[in-house]
């Protein structure tokens, strides 16, 4: 039996030696143990096949149990359960013997030569954990066989601590991949012991390398290494043994209830090929590797370092069953929350224990609610559990209390704990028994004794969680309660999520329904339009003969003609734009080709210089042919441009000519490479081969293709010394020029200089004028004076080092003199430019810098006007010039915040160093505004409160329809009426008068058009024919431009006509106009919307169109971009022409400024004009009276007006004439005269 239990014998022997036989053992425990110890199968005579210590231990146990039993041996009777267990033990022993013999034979096969059989690397005898602390037993002994079968036992001092991650591992591999956060496994170090897949059955694995993070394309992989390859056979073997071995099921209580576990998500998945494992079938020795995914991992820590309570330790090891309830259908029901019913069985699956940390969990876990169970419930359950102990009762007696105290080890840290426990029972018992209330009291007494420094409730909780929660029935109740609490929270969350999702889907369905409804409405409107079109077609068939129909047809044709003209003109303009774009594109392509050609030509240029040949300057350019001329390989072109005649001469040179010319010029006997020939000091020899001929005053350049043997006669050859070197000077003379040729034997360098006969003659004449030659020397150029000429020229030959290139230079004296004069001229020009630039820089510095006064330091500084930078010292460019002191004035400047980029305007006085956010005008306005407020308070008696930022007063004076003078009683009345309108509406919002007054207040004073629209709608529903409401609502509709313009205007016209029928004298609207419209103008005269309301008042109600026109223009002057004012003014102007709603005799007076005069008569006050921007075709021509400011479309009687005005003309000072109006009593003339000054603006 000990062999099967796989226990070490030494601890049992030590325990037997320390056993006190005088100590009384519990009778119930003794009865259970006696059935196994006194069984005939454990008789020492039958244990001869085992070692001798097994028989000795069996004899000792039998004697000990026999002495403890009351009957002395009454426990030897055999029970059916014990007999069944011993039969299973015998069968396991037989199977164990067969495995032992098979392994012995295999070991004999693998020990040959010290080589390992490859087929046995998964054998059951492999030691899976080399980190075991116990020594390796000898081969063939019991311990070695047991170690091969079951693996090394767990370290007695190590406990598994779960890590909140899962791992993936392959069999026969050392690498373990982590599925989770790196922070969860960074506690693993080299040498740590871990368990994989199962906390109990798994062997101990040593970590050889700590976890590391390997970066890849998808993020990173965390992995660590084991000291040995992973072998999963131990776990499979233990699982098989647990299913077939009754003793193992007894020895491993955590396997209890496995059959009751529901089908839930597993903690690990194993991927394998179809095979039979060696732990199941010993005959199978070779199998495919396993791949374990999402397996749990535990770190083995010493028992002293484990601070977890016992219940948490059991949960972390996975020994707490999931379904541990008596009634399996307890949670198989549904729950309803938020009007959503959910199946608890589905919720239970989602709440299964998760191996991940709390922050990574999605669903609720029962472990989070274990400590949330009330302590009182735990004590109650403990009381019920103890009462169910044998013998079952309703109270706890002293025996059960003593048994509970021993199991739970109450007061283990208190001296003389047994006495304290007995005294606690004595203090709280009643007839040596405890009821539920006294059971609670005795726990409080024990808690106060064990933890005297803690509060009573906290002490009781600490005692309860450390002791009675580990009672099986209590623990079972608590885990079931925690599971129930987690499921309740989870089901509420799921129901809430379902309700939210349903709401979202409802809103989506509603949106789709509204969209479908809108589509149906559109379809219905289209159908009605189609039906209306059919009706109109029928109607037109009946009206085809009518005159009105013909007129409309004519107008429609005219409109269609204009539309076709506009359409085809737009097409024509579009065609023109396309042609213009096409032309621009072609020009751009041409420019691109020319640019490319120019770039190729620029890249092909190898030499460019300005040379002077005799007296003519020319630009010499040498370049290769571009890549387009493939047949002209290595061909150079010499271009000579003469600015004087604007001609260009081109010479093409092949490669042979170039090489021969440059080789001869360089004096080298060998051919030159292209790198040597393309140097500037070599290519300059090609320009020296150019010759100038003047034909009829026109310079012509030729390129000499001859060799360096000069044309002409050698007239002299001598040796000269220059720059410390010897040169051979050869002089050649031809009819056209004289050529000097030098050769240096040491460096073999050849130089050449040439002077034409014409230049030589002028040179000799200039020398005679400077007294360098006598009169007899003037004929040196004559052939008979050739020797003198040679001597004279040789003295003027200069050989020197080249100022730019390396080497020597040969030139004549006049050329050296010209070069010296050129340098002097350049130097003088540079000095002059420097002086001029210095003066210009000083002038610019005087305009760029200004002198400012810094108030903080009481000194002056200099400010750069362009950059804004300041400096204390005077700029050096100013020199001794001093800047003027700053002017005592305020200037506006802008400061920009470099972080936010916001520009801020401020004002500064650089003479005093003061700065302010207000300008002088703003400060003056503030003073004036305060003075006006004080003045108004003195006059009115109280300050006028208006919802505007600035109080400007705009007064319109109209003689015929003006208000009474704005006296104090009128102002008080208006202010009081406005203030009471809002309060009365709040008190009685259903009264029609209050609604109308508040609508006018929000419309005219507050300018809250949204609220005013709602109020006007309520008023129209209450009284749709009231003249006041119709006129006010009509003005509001025109001011807000709500809806289609044409339909809105027609509706307003109908409303105004209805109001005019009911109230033709406008008496019912005068009060509203005085209190709201005109008072709004008084308090907010510069608001364009207020002026728009006032203009619509004169346009729609009083029919004073000229005054309305002036008010419109005043509003547009304050805000030209206001669309409401602009559209209303445009509509008003278009309706003033004949046929419109506001038809007049002539166009508005504002049209005169943009019109042009077509005809005028001498002495007449009328002129015929044309409006180029007339919105109504056919009314472009009108007549204008320059005295009465009257316009009309009909032609006036010229003679009648002339005869009426002529007698009244009087001559003034004999210089001009002034027309005096005759018949001043004419009311129309007086009215037109007064219109000139009908608007007065008073600004404080």
Automatic annotation (TrEMBL):
Highest taxon of source: Eukaryota
SMART domains on file: IQ
Annotated spans, Disordered: 104-139
Record's signal peptide: none
InterPro entries: IQ_motif_EF-hand-BS (IPR000048), TPR-like_helical_dom_sf (IPR011990), WW_dom (IPR001202)
Protein name (database record): WW domain-containing protein
Organism: Thalassiosira oceanica
């Amino acid at each position: 039996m000990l062999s099967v239990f796989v226990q070490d014998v030494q601890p049992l022997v030590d325990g037997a030696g320390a056993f006190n036989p005088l100590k009384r053992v519990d009778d119930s425990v003794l009865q259970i143990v006696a059935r196994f110890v006194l069984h005939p199968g454990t008789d020492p005579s039958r244990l001869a096949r085992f070692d001798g210590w097994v028989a000795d231990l069996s004899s000792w146990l039998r004697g000990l149990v026999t002495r403890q039993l009351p009957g002395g041996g009454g426990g030897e009777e055999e029970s059916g359960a014990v007999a069944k267990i011993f039969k299973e033990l015998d069968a396991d022993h037989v199977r164990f013997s067969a495995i032992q013999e098979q392994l012995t034979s295999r070991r004999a096969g693998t020990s040959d030569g010290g080589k390992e059989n490859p087929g046995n690397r998964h054998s059951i005898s492999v030691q899976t954990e080399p980190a075991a602390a116990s020594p390796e037993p000898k081969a063939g002994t019991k311990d070695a066989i047991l170690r091969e079968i079951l693996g090394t036992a767990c370290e007695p001092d190590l406990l598994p601590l779960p890590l909140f991650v899962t791992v993936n591992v392959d069999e026969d591999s050392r690498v373990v991949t982590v599925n989770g956060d790196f922070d969860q496994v960074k506690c693993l170090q080299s040498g740590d012991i871990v368990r994989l897949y199962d906390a109990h059955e798994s062997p101990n694995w040593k970590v050889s390398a700590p976890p590391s993070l390997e970066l890849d394309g998808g993020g990173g992989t965390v992995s660590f290494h084991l000291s040995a390859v992973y072998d999963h056979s131990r776990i499979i073997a233990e699982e098989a043994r647990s299913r077939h071995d009754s003793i193992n099921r007894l020895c491993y209580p955590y396997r209890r209830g496995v059959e009751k576990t529901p089908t839930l998500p597993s903690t690990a998945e194993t991927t394998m090929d179809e095979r039979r494992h060696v732990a199941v079938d010993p005959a199978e020795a070779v199998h495919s590797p396993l791949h374990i995914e999402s397996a749990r991992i535990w770190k083995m820590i010493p028992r002293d370092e484990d601070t977890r309570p016992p219940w948490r330790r059991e949960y972390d090891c996975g020994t707490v069953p999931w379904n541990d309830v008596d009634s399996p259908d307890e949670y198989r029901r549904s729950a309803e929350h938020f009007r959503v019913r959910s199946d608890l069985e589905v919720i239970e699956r989602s709440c299964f224990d998760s191996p991940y940390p709390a922050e990574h969990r999605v669903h609720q876990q029962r472990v989070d609610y274990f400590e949330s169970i009330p302590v009182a419930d735990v004590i109650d359950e403990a009381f019920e559990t103890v009462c169910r102990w044998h013998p079952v009762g309703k109270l706890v007696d002293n025996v059960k209390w003593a048994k509970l105290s021993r199991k739970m080890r109450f007061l283990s840290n208190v001296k003389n704990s047994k006495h304290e426990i007995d005294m606690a029972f004595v203090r709280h018992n009643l007839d040596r028994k405890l009821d539920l209330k006294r059971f609670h009291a005795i726990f409080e007494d024990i808690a106060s004794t064990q933890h005297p420094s803690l509060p009573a409730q906290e002490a009781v909780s600490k005692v309860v969680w450390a002791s009675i929660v580990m009672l099986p029935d209590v623990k079972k109740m608590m885990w079931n309660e925690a599971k129930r609490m987690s499921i309740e929270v989870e089901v509420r969350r799921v129901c809430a999520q379902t309700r939210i999702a349903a709401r979202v889907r409802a809103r989506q369905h509603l949106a789709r329904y509204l969209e479908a409804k809108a589509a149906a409405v559109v379809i219905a409107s289209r159908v009605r339009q189609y039906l209306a079109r059919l009706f109109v077609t029928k109607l037109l068939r009946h009206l085809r003969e009518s005159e009105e129909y013909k007129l409309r047809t004519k107008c429609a044709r005219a409109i269609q003609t204009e539309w076709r003209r506009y359409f085809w003109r737009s097409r024509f303009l579009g065609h023109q734009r396309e042609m213009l774009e096409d032309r621009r594109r072609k020009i751009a392509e041409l420019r691109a080709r020319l640019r490319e050609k120019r770039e190729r030509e620029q890249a092909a240029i190898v030499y460019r210089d300005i040379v002077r040949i005799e007296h003519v300057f020319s630009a010499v350019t040498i370049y290769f042919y571009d890549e387009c001329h493939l047949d002209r390989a290595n061909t150079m072109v010499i271009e000579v441009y003469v600015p004087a005649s604007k001609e260009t001469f081109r010479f093409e040179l092949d490669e042979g000519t170039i090489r021969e010319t440059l080789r001869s010029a360089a004096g080298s006997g060998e051919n030159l490479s292209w790198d040597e020939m393309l140097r500037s000091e070599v290519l300059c020899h090609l320009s020296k081969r150019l010759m100038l001929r003047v034909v009829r005053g026109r310079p012509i350049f030729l390129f000499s293709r001859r060799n360096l043997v000069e044309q002409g006669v050698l007239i002299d050859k001598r040796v000269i010394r220059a720059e410390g070197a010897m040169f051979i000077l050869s002089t050649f003379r031809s009819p056209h020029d004289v050529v000097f040729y030098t050769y240096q034997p040491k460096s073999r360098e050849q130089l050449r200089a040439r002077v034409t006969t014409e230049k030589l003659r002028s040179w000799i004449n200039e020398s005679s004028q400077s007294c360098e030659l006598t009169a007899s020397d003037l004929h040196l150029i004559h052939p008979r004076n050739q020797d003198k000429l040679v001597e004279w020229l040789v003295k003027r030959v200069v050989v020197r080092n080249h100022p730019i290139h390396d080497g020597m230079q040969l030139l004549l004296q006049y050329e050296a003199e010209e070069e010296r004069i050129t340098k002097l001229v350049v130097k003088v020009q540079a000095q002059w430019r420097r002086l001029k630039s210095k003066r210009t820089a000083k002038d610019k510095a005087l305009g760029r810098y200004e002198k400012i006064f810094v108030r903080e330091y009481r000194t002056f500084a200099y400010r750069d006007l362009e950059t804004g930078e300041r400096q204390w010292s005077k700029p050096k460019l100013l020199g001794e010039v001093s800047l003027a002191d700053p002017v005592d004035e305020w200037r506006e400047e802008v400061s920009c915040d470099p972080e936010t980029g916001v520009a801020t305007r401020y004002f500064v006085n650089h003479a005093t160093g003061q700065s302010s956010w207000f300008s002088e005008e703003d400060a003056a306005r503030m003073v004036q505004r305060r003075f006006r407020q004080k003045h108004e308070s003195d006059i009115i008696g109280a300050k006028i409160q208006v919802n505007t930022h600035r109080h400007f007063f705009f007064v319109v004076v109209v003689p015929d329809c003006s208000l009474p003078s704005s006296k104090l009683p009128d102002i008080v009345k208006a202010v009081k009426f406005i203030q009471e309108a809002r309060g009365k509406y709040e008190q009685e919002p259903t009264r029609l008068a209050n609604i109308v007054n508040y609508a006018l207040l929000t419309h005219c004073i507050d300018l809250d058009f949204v609220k005013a629209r709602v109020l006007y709608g309520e008023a129209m529903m209450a009284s749709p024919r009231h003249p006041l409401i119709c006129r006010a609502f009509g003005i509001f509709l025109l001011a807000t431009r709500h809806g289609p313009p044409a339909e809105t205007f027609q509706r307003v016209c109908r409303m105004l006509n209805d109001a005019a029928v009911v109230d033709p004298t406008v008496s019912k609207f005068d009060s509203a106009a005085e209190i709201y419209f005109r008072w709004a103008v008084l308090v907010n005269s510069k608001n364009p919307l207020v002026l728009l309301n006032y203009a619509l008042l004169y346009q729609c109600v009083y029919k004073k169109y000229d005054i309305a026109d002036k008010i419109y223009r005043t509003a547009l002057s304050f805000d030209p971009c206001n669309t409401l004012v602009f559209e209303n003014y445009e509509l008003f102007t278009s309706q003033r022409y004949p046929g419109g709603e506001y038809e007049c005799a002539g166009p508005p007076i504002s049209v005169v400024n943009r019109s042009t005069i077509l005809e005028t008569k001498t002495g007449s006050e009328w002129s015929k004009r044309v409006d180029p921007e007339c919105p109504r075709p056919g009314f472009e021509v009108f007549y204008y009276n320059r005295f009465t400011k009257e316009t009309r479309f009909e032609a006036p009687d010229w003679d009648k007006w002339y005869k009426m005005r002529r007698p009244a003309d009087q001559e003034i000072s004999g210089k001009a004439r002034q027309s005096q109006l005759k018949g001043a009593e004419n009311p129309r003339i007086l009215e037109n005269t007064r219109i000139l000054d009908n608007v007065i603006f008073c600004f404080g």
